[in-house]
Amino acid sequence: MSLIVVGTMAFDAIETPFGKTDRIVGGSATYVAYAASNFVKPVKQISIVGYDFPQEEMDSLKSRGVELAGVDVIKDKKSFFWSGRYHLDMNTRDTLVTDLNVLLDFDPKVPESYQESEFLMLGNLDPKLQIKVIQQMKTRPKLIVMDTMNFWMEVAMPQLEEVLKMVDVLMVNDSEARELSGQFSLVKAAKEIMKMGPKYLIIKKGEHGALLFYEDQVFFAPALPLEEVFDPTGAGDTFAGGFIGHIAKTGDISFNNMKRAIIVGSALASFCVEKFGPERLKEITQKDIDGRIQQFVDLVNFDIELVK
Amino acid sequence: MSLIVVGTMAFDAIETPFGKTDRIVGGSATYVAYAASNFVKPVKQISIVGYDFPQEEMDSLKSRGVELAGVDVIKDKKSFFWSGRYHLDMNTRDTLVTDLNVLLDFDPKVPESYQESEFLMLGNLDPKLQIKVIQQMKTRPKLIVMDTMNFWMEVAMPQLEEVLKMVDVLMVNDSEARELSGQFSLVKAAKEIMKMGPKYLIIKKGEHGALLFYEDQVFFAPALPLEEVFDPTGAGDTFAGGFIGHIAKTGDISFNNMKRAIIVGSALASFCVEKFGPERLKEITQKDIDGRIQQFVDLVNFDIELVK
């Protein structure tokens, strides 16, 4: 099964209570690709980078089965750069610098070789670019998943509403779900958001896990309790990559399989936060992933028959 | 199996974003008793009230199998009174009034008829009173569970450390676990706290569920995603009551049974928040409880074999 991933490939500079990095590789599509490529090949990447994006990173992605035909390289501009500082709770952060650079020119093109892909993951981007990608697909993918953020709710709500009608699964965090719906209760928020288009809604709650809503059903996946969250940057994108990677691998878009995909995404995200940037994601093996998934089983498993 | 519950029986006045009550019945031991009496009879209550505590409430408890031989009634003093206002997120609240009244005289006595009880639930109280109760037990209960709060960490840490050495299970919320241990990570906090005495630690995270730690194992129970949390007062005590009620009913103090007990406690707590005070707890039937427990199963259940 083939998967298209659209999003940023960028540089980040990160400060956490545990340390500080200079410019390291980041970007939503980078994290999604590193996570998803554990499950499905090829991952067909659509992004834009500047002259400064490292060739070794491109090579590393290629070696994992990530196709880069859809990645524009702009010779006279720099890559998108974000810098931020996390607070002690790691759930809140201050943006220090946002240099859009090449992102100002991003006009995503779906290469001919990407057509007929069955799965489409739209990372957080200007909703009009997300729409453009969907419109270029000659055959509608079997499943379209999108991420977004509060910024677009504030500056591009009509376009966001339009793309929401075109997708199957929306992934947002709890504060974004509240802002998008105008509801504080996440259960009520989910109902409102599903009226806007997506049949499935995933609400990410960081260290408090994630909720999957579908019709009147709800599934909850915890986050793994960790001794240390070293750097949460990219954890949400890694979650998305594990989720869509599992779905694309299995080709099964049932609610039950989405539950499994959320556990896979949560497992991948729990690795991501162990080191700065996507570093840890490059090291892990299938055995590591299987072991981590087993930890999720142990974490929530109880013998219900004996309760009654 | 018999259960002793020690704690307050009191009045609360509550303001939430959804409404406001005059003085209604509350208190940790009240909530524990209403919850636990669904599973085990008798519940042997130890508390203190003033002349103003309603006879109909005493009768209601008695009719559910709650013994009141250990409840002192002070004829010339008022019952403990607390008043608070919740913020929109319902996880934070401001205390408006605390009138200790009879609580200043509380000197818990274990009646002879309570001796030989196998289970002891110590609600949040001055740790020196918690110690007094344990010391009066001629036979050490099979399981001693205690609750506490940050106030005692600030004014009575040596006594709190002493009682921690005497109990099996400590229940605290996340901020209390952090304060008690000096660790921000809950995993690290749990390790530190288990060194202080309790073999089991339950960290309550309100709407984000609860964690159970034992040796190097951890179990997570979610809170049920609710459309509305009407009044969270007493939810923690109700959780405790469901937990110890299930343990006392089954007589099984294994880690696996504690997992089930936490699900039962979470189910009971999810009812508690649906109305002001313990009102909802008085209405629910065994069928309601079974249905709610099934919702917890559905909430976290996934078919892991198919993930790999």
Query: How would you name the CATH homologous superfamily of chain A?
Result: Ribokinase
> What's the count of strands of chain A?
14
Largest interface, by Cβ-Cβ below 8 angstroms: which chains and how many residues each?
Answer: A-B, 43 and 45 residues
Low-confidence stretches of chain A: none
Shape of chain A from CA axes?
globular
Query: What is the number of domains of chain A?
Result: 1
Helix/strand class of chain A:
alpha/beta
Radius of gyration of chain A: 18 Å
Question: Average pLDDT of chain A, to the nearest integer?
Answer: 95
Strand percentage of chain A: 15-25%
CATH class of chain A: Alpha Beta
Task: Please give a handful of descriptors for the protein shown.
homodimer, 308 residues, UDP-N-acetylmuramoyl-L-alanine:D-glutamate ligase, nine-stranded mixed β-sheet, five-stranded mixed β-sheet, 11 helices, 24% strand, globular
Brief write-up:
With 308 residues, chain A is an alpha/beta fold. Chain A has one domain: Ribokinase (UDP-N-acetylmuramoyl-L-alanine:D-glutamate ligase, 3-Layer(aba) Sandwich), CATH 3.40.1190.20. Helices cover 37% and strands 24% of the residues of chain A.
Task: Characterise the protein shown here.
Two copies of one chain form a homodimer. The N and C termini of chain A lie far apart (43 Å). Chain A is an alpha/beta fold and 308 residues long. In chain A, a hairpin with a 6-residue loop joins β7 and β8. Chain A has a single domain, classed as Ribokinase (UDP-N-acetylmuramoyl-L-alanine:D-glutamate ligase, 3-Layer(aba) Sandwich), CATH 3.40.1190. Helices cover 37% and strands 24% of the residues of chain A. In chain A, strands 6-5-1-9-10-11-12-13-14 form a nine-stranded mixed beta sheet, sandwiched between helices. The longest helix of chain A is centred in the last third of the chain and has 18 residues. Chain A is globular. The mean pLDDT of chain A is 95. At the A-B interface, α7, β14, α9 and α11 of A face α7, β14, α9 and α11 of B.
